[in-house]
Amino acid sequence: MIRKLLVAVLGGAALAASPAFADIKIGTAGPLSNAEALFGTTWQNGMQLAINEANAAGGINGQKLVLVRQDDQGDPKQGTLLAQKFCDDDSILAVIANFNSGVTIPSSDVYNRCGLPQVTNSSNPKVTAAGYDNLFRPIANDFMQGGAPAAYALQTLGAKTTAIVHDKQAFGEGVATVFRQNFEKGGGKVTSYSGVTATDVDFSAVITQLKTENPDIVYYGGTMPGVGLFLKQLRDLGMKSTFFAADPAFLPDLITTAGPANAAGAIVSFQAPPYDANPKLVKFKGDYKKSFNEEPGPYSAYGYNEAAVIIEAMKRAGSGVTRETIVKELRKTKLDGLMGTVEFDDKGELKSPTLFLYKVKDNDFVLEWPKS
Amino acid sequence: MTGFLIQQLVNALTIGAIYALIALGYTMVYGVLRLINFAHSEMFMVGGHVAFFLLAATASLAGGPIGVLVMFAVFVATFVAVGLLGVGIEAAAYRPLRHASRLAPMLSALGVAIILQNVVMLFVSRRPLPFPPFLPAVSFKVFGAVVTLNQIFIVAFAVALMLALAWFVNTTTLGVKIRAVSENPQTAQLLGININMPISLIFFIGPGLGALAGTLYASYYGIVVFSMGFIVGLKAFIAAILGGIGSIPGAMLGGFMLGLLETFGAGLLPMLTHGLIGSEYRDVFAFSVLVLVLIFRPAGFLGEAVTEEGMVYKRDF
Questions:
Q1: C-alpha–C-alpha distance, residues B285 and B267, integer Å
Q2: How far is B218 from chain A (nearest CA, A)?
Q3: Residue B133, preceding bond cis, omega within 30 degrees?
Q4: Under DSSP, is residue A143 helix (H, G, I), strand (E, B) or coil?
């Protein structure tokens, strides 16, 4: 009896929670509450903007699009839980998930099992290694992100030696390994390659070790706040080596955590050009400001692009829009996006990825490479 | 190489001083109540946050760099605020369980720790907050090592606090009462000591010191976050065991010893093993030390060996 009652109540709740019949839902999960909250929130705002524009233009076959925003806290456990939730919800036709490589790798297994089209923003090469045909990545992977800084360090800065530190996470260690390979291939010498604990705040022991090696470059593969603390302690202990970090450091928090004087001169790789790089981005920046009353975040343009490729695929799928047809149409994507054409190769990777290097200068990130 | 060793020594003493301050809170409570106060690590975390908001308030009022007076005012206010929180927690969560089995207050302490962490996470921030440095970034070169003003201050201030505590416990009347309760609560009560008073006092001083450690830690690393207490608290607990839990000089010694072991372990082992054991095993050193101490010297370096007789009168309190 009690069980029956429970089923009835739960069933009622499920009915009440389900949306109006005609809506098409796109799910998204990213970090909204941890140290990377700024990334996650503004990334999802970018998607929201693309969806608002599509709705204003009449939606998909007259149906309204809805973005279901979830917080995976950058945590693989949370990410897979949400993946199962999205899978079980039949009104969700596509997902943009996840932001962190360490979360996307396990969650992609879940999404693949239920055939849900997944567009991701994670850059680790392992993300596409499983070869899932429902997974697409319209952003440069870490082969690019580790490679370009190595080339810049060797050729432009004339660096000979580097010390590499990573935080042992899927992303940090992955990008550090690519940097190491490229730096060695280019004729540079890696003086040491060490790992630290991602949640640690005291790096003085390893930095003191680096001091004896006196490398031209110190490369840190890892996320905030570790990268900011590492940079602070590097300078506090008197090391002058040029500091390189990957895209998670592309946050104002890097400068506040490390201190403006310590952060000055640090080189950070990032996949997007500055928002004044082309007319489309300038317009995007204006629209974003109008909608959210703030400057767009680092990944807002990518969030917009990722939602746009899904919306385009849905439009092409026509009246029979299902998870399967979206996957099929995503493969044929040829979208004139905010940062160039988006096309996927047979692994779901972006065909012509871009990468930029920024230098910290006067409390801001200034484009350093390539000089236009 | 000398520069390298001296640099590691300075790093070790700084973090060791912070471990020692926190370890005092564990050891004092254990000494009197035979309770491992798992909520103590959160006193450290709350201390960092209280100081953060005090600083935010005063800095916006003064609009300039933090002066020495403001700094000490923040220290005193943080000590008192978190000290009172500690007294409140003892009265609410431990006192009603004082005559229950020894597991009960320990579980209660774990509960308090979880509550505090979640309250800060939900009502303050999940994101790490940048903590301003108290002192200007001045550094000195000593035999090839860089020593910052901040490091000197942390070690000096922590040592001063420990000396003050040692003086307080060893020479004042209140200190005598604390020692009496710690030696044998029943006898102390028979001699006319209201045992609630020294216990409350311990729950004022311990969390206060923990809070100051949290403030120093936050200003040293430039960050406060709701989850910062867990691992540091665990290490300070190891420091307390290393020195001999229940012994105040033991906690001080244990803190510095753990700082040295951990820093030199993380700094030297990668060199000696040619990278086979990396600095990422830093925490492993701390926990291996705990295992070794528990096997070979369960009473710690300065702790009293537990005798049959001692167990009898302290067991059921």
A1: 11
A2: 10
A3: no
A4: helix
Determine the residue of chain B that is closest to A207 in CA distance.
B267
Tokens 């054991």, located at residue: B277
B130-164: per-residue pLDDT in tens?
888 888 878 888 888 889 898 999 999 999 999 99
Q: Please, are residues A313 and A335 in contact by the beta-carbon 8 Å criterion?
A: no
What are A221-242's pLDDT values in tens digits? 999 889 999 999 999 898 999 9
Q: Does domain A2-140+277-342 have CATH number 3.40.50.2300?
A: yes
Quote the minimal CA–CA distance from A197 to chain B in Å: 5
**Interface of chain B against chain A, CB under 8 Å?**
1, 3-4, 7-8, 11, 14-15, 126-128, 130, 133, 137, 139, 141, 146, 148, 221-223, 225, 227-228, 231, 262-264, 266-267, 270-271, 275, 278-280, 282-283
* CA–CA dist B161, B173 (Å, integer): 19
Confirm whether pTM is higher than 0.95: no
Whose tokens are 């867990």? That residue is B230
Query: How many angstroms separate the CA of residue A169 from the nearest CA in chain B?
Result: 12
**CATH 3.40.50.2300 domain position(s) in chain A:** 2-140+277-342, 142-270
Two tokens at B65?
């760099």
Instruction: Answer for the pair B281, B264: CB distance below 8 angstroms, yes or no.
Output: no
Within its chain, how far is the Cα of A74 from the centroid?
Answer: 11
What ipTM did this prediction achieve? 0.83
Q: Name which of B309, B99, B91 is nearest B184 in CA terms.
A: B309
Among 3.30.565.10, 3.40.50.2300, 1.20.1560.10, 3.20.20.190, what is the CATH number of A142-270?
A: 3.40.50.2300
